[in-house]
UniProtKB/TrEMBL annotation:
SUPFAM superfamilies on file: GST C-terminal domain-like (SSF47616), Thioredoxin-like (SSF52833)
Natural source organism: Salinisphaera japonica YTM-1
Segments forming domain GST C-terminal: 81-238
Domain of life: Bacteria
CDD domains: GST_C_family, GST_N_family
Protein name, per record: Glutathione S-transferase
GO molecular function, one term: transferase activity
Annotated InterPro entries: Glutathione-S-Trfase_C-like (IPR010987), Glutathione-S-Trfase_C_sf (IPR036282), Glutathione_S-Trfase_N (IPR004045), Thioredoxin-like_sf (IPR036249)
UniProt keyword annotations, A-Z: Transferase
Biological classification of the source: Bacteria, Pseudomonadati, Pseudomonadota, Gammaproteobacteria, Salinisphaerales
Pfam families assigned: GST_C_2, GST_N_3
Matching Gene3D superfamilies: 3.40.30.110
Length: 317
């Protein structure tokens, strides 16, 4: 697996720590923190959120799908033990959709901005803020507010502090995808000296975060974006995929469609529909100089709408 990411990306940290739990070697491509991302867009077709995973000419968007793909390929230790499925789903939603959003106003508060400006510079911070504002202009949710953060961050931290009183990880003695999902916003806030106290005031949460950090990121080989593009161009065919279209979707095989995230960062990706199930959407699209790629998205949180046919490549496989 190639992971396209940048060091300070919290959702990238979610995947990196999952790779550490699995002990899986991977290849690392560093992408810019903000647009433009000229070597990533040919792979994603316009999807801009970080991280993105790549296996040959198959491209995977969204950490939920990346972790599911990792679990399917490396079954132990399990990120998704079946007996904990509902608890993991609830904690994933809390981490990815509540705590991450609650972390943003903390980081952009006055003490948080001081540390960010020290790291990025005044011009870099302004560019970062403008880029993230644009990210929330599309989709069903706007940029989170300080009120949202106040309503969710500390009540959630207090609940996690209570849950961790008799266990090493959120659901027991071993980390799962639930820990990965809660850890990344905690890691994001704790890494900013101006607001780290929003984590460190909870000693059990801080100790759990130390245990998560100690799991590491397994073994990563740094490669260039050009190397990743070359791997996509040279790959022989695609990863195995069942050709199926959910009959309730009203869509058909090879139909031209547009896929977009519905929460934020809703840049549309166009292609031919080749798979639509309860868990996944897959399209084929023609990428200049790379040939036909398959772009994979989770079903939840993404819309699939009919296209006009102009952007759908003719199948070459």
């Amino acid at each position: 697996m190639i992971l396209h990411h940048f060091d300070a990306s919290p959702f990238s940290e979610k995947v990196r720590i999952a790779l550490g739990i699995k002990g899986v070697s991977w290849q690392s491509v560093k992408v810019p923190r903000i647009l433009p991302k000229p070597d990533l867009m040919p792979l994603t077709g316009g999807y801009r959120r970080t991280p993105v995973a790549q296996i040959g000419r198959d491209i995977y968007a969204d950490t939920r799908l990346i972790l599911a793909e990792l679990e399917a390929r490396h079954t132990t230790p399990a990120l998704y033990p079946p007996a904990q499925a509902a608890s993991i789903a609830a904690l994933e939603q809390l981490g990815d959709q509540v705590l991450f959003l609650a972390a943003i106003p903390l980081l952009l508060s006055e003490p948080g901005q001081v540390a960010l400006e020290r790291a990025l510079g005044a011009v870099g911070l302004a560019a970062f803020r403008a880029d993230r504002a644009a990210l929330f202009e599309q989709g069903r949710i706007g940029a989170p507010t300080a009120d949202f953060s106040a309503a969710h961050w500390h009540p959630s931290m207090a609940a996690l502090e209570a849950q961790l009183q008799d266990r090493a990880y959120l659901l027991g003695d071993a980390p799962t995808a639930a820990d990965c999902a809660i850890y990344h916003p905690v890691w994001y806030v704790r890494g900013n000296p101006g607001v780290a106290e929003a984590v460190t005031r909870y000693p059990r949460v801080a100790a759990w975060a130390n245990r998560m950090q100690a799991l590491g990121h397994a073994t990563a080989e740094e490669i260039s974006s050009g190397d990743a593009l070359a791997q996509a161009a040279a790959a022989n065919g695609f990863e195995p995929l069942t050709a199926t279209i959910d009959p309730d979707s009203g869509l058909t095989m090879n139909q031209s469609v547009h896929v977009a995230a519905t929460d934020y960062g809703g840049d549309s990706v166009a292609g031919r529909l080749v798979h639509l199930s309860q868990g996944r959407v897959v399209i084929e699209r023609d990428a200049p100089d790379l040939g036909v790629l398959r772009n994979h998205f989770p079903r939840a949180g993404f819309s699939v709408t009919p296209g006009d046919g102009a952007d759908a490549p003719a199948s070459v496989y």
